[in-house]
Amino acid sequence: MLTAIKGYFENGQIIMEEQAPVQSRTEVIITFLTEERPSNKGKRIPGGLKGRVSIPDDFNEPLDDLKDYM
Fold this sequence. Notes:
By secondary structure, the chain is low in regular secondary structure.
């Protein structure tokens, strides 16, 4: 059974905001949600791929693989 319970970490302890749904010893996985935001190092540049990408002239033509179904 997987259950998520919201809580917080403070002074080396994890404080849960609600009661755990188990009464015996149970393995847990703890995920820390930090407030750090990723940097904008990979910010997109409009037209950044201009001249690097090409579309073949027959792009809109039917695929040879589908000829048996037409």
